[in-house]
Design a protein that fits this description.
Elements lengths: L1 H7 L3 H10 L4 H29 L3 H9 L5 H34 L10 H20 L2 H29 L2 H6 L10 H16 L2 H5 L5 H4 L1 H29 L9 H7 L3 H30 L5 H16 L1 H5 L2 H30 L24 H18 L2 H5 L4 H23 L1
Helix pairs in contact: 1-12, 2-12, 3-9, 3-12, 3-17, 4-17, 5-6, 5-13, 5-14, 5-15, 5-17, 6-14, 6-15, 7-12, 7-14, 9-17, 13-14, 14-15, 17-18, 17-20, 18-20
GO molecular function, one term: cytosine transmembrane transporter activity
Organism: Liquorilactobacillus hordei DSM 19519
Protein name: Purine-cytosine permease
């Protein structure tokens, strides 16, 4: 379980998040990373315990709070976010392919005149590799993950050595962010929270198989935290080291491919980045396909996988249309913070406070049972989610939150209070 959650954050996206946080400066970025990640993974532990207690996946658990049919809402959201993460990893890996093509045959890089050609080819190559990794079955996926994680660890140590040969930790710590690029503390907390909360809705999918309480709570928390701190730290110091050594800082150069190229790590490093995309996306695509099959039971998993692979490929082109991967990534993280925070709050409040840590598992699939609510939907949960999602944007506009604690965790707290209060009003009305 520990290795699973370390591995969950051993990917391209975590490097990139570290690079994005460079806009806060080294010490502020590390403070944000520790605070926001630790708080996010408290929710992972809470969801993990529910999986341990019930033996049910996270989306299965959501039936108790949203209703059996109402659970389609979090399932569809999970589907879209895993499509999004597939696209994120694909774009980062496609960038590596474009760098390889640049080094091998001289194609222009993305952002340069004619640079779209290399990215088109990179996205096509990565999409084919992802389809192969899924179509070949679970054994090939296991092999890709096992080989990939070893190569990732080797690459991280290698990159660390190169970074600290280039600049010292003292230089990195003393580097000052150009004022026009500086990121507010609250915005940084929201960015890290959205990145980490994406794993929370998959927590029970793994912990439902654990045999001890600590394996479902303490171990996932520790593993995920170690993984995100380790890999984001590497992305952070690598991005700052390039800014220090070159004398220029560009937040768009936070992706692992640009970092590997500027540090002179060579073709092997780019190949490792491509492999890590396959490692992460094999899981993302399987999760998205399973969520789609849950919403549309008549679709076979194989058909669902082809659908999500096609959709992920299409979504990967969005940064090219916008002209900036960083801008597209920021919008995606805002979407995650908006839709996932209220869902997590509702599930946790329902289990721990309203149902007193007891779910009747046999009722989770029973039509007209206790989790059927009205027509299969708990409209209180749906209404709370809608209000919570809308409130996220309102809170983001408050300057005080933007420079302090951000909107995500405040939104989750308000959503929790609202759901608890509305459910209590309904209960009193029935009495």
């Amino acid at each position: 379980m520990f290795a699973t959650w370390v591995g969950a954050n051993a990917n391209n996206g975590t490097w990139y998040i570290g690079g994005v946080l460079a806009a806060c400066g080294f010490f502020a970025a590390m403070n944000v990373l520790v605070f926001s990640s630790a708080l996010s993974y408290v929710f992972l532990s809470l969801i993990g315990f529910i999986g341990y207690k019930t033996g049910v996946s996270t989306m299965g658990i959501s039936r108790a709070s949203f209703g059996i049919r109402g659970s389609f809402l979090p399932s569809l959201i999970n589907f879209t976010q895993f499509i999004g993460w597939t696209a994120v990893n694909t774009f980062i890996a496609a960038t590596s392919v474009s760098y390889l093509l640049h080094d091998l045959i001289g194609l222009p890089l993305f952002g340069q005149p004619g640079g779209n050609t290399g990215m088109f080819l990179g996205i096509a190559v990565m999409s084919v590799l992802h389809i192969i990794s899924i179509a070949s079955g679970s054994r090939s996926v296991q092999l890709i993950e096992r080989v990939g994680i070893i190569l990732v660890f080797i690459f991280v140590f290698w990159e660390s050595i190169v970074v600290f040969k280039t600049v010292s930790l003292e230089q990195i710590a003393a580097w000052d962010v150009p004022s026009k690029f500086r990121m507010n503390g609250g915005s940084a907390i929201d960015t890290v929270a959205a990145f980490n909360l994406a794993w929370v809705t998959a927590g029970a999918d793994f912990t439902r198989f654990t045999k001890k309480k600590s394996d479902s709570t303490v171990v996932p928390f520790a593993g995920a935290l170690v993984g995100v701190l380790w890999f984001a730290f590497i992305g952070l110091v690598a991005t700052i080291s390039i800014a220090v050594s070159s004398g220029a800082y560009d937040p768009n150069n936070s992706d692992p491919s640009a970092i590997a190229s500027k540090l002179g790590l060579g073709i092997i490093a780019l190949l490792v980045i491509i492999l890590t995309s396959m490692t992460a996306n094999a899981v993302n695509l399987m999760a998205a396909g399973s969520a789609l099959s849950n919403v549309f039971p008549k679709l076979s998993l194989k058909v669902s996988l082809w659908i999500v692979a096609l959709l992920a490929t299409i979504v990967t082109f969005i940064p090219m249309i916008l002209g900036s991967f960083l801008n597209a990534f920021t919008v995606f993280l805002d979407y995650i913070g908006m839709v996932l925070g209220p869902i997590i709050s509702i599930i946790i409040v329902d289990f721990y406070l309203l149902k007193k840590k007891e779910y009747k598992v046999t009722e989770l699939t029973k039509q007209n049972g206790i989790y059927w609510y009205r027509g299969g939907i708990n409209w209180i949960a749906v209404i709370t989610w809608v209000i919570g999602a809308g409130l996220f944007f309102v809170l983001q506009k408050i300057n005080f939150l933007s420079i302090t604690v951000g909107a995500t965790f405040i939104d989750m707290l308000l959503s929790a209070v609202l759901y608890f209060a509305l459910m209590k009003v309904i209960e009193k009305g029935r009495d």
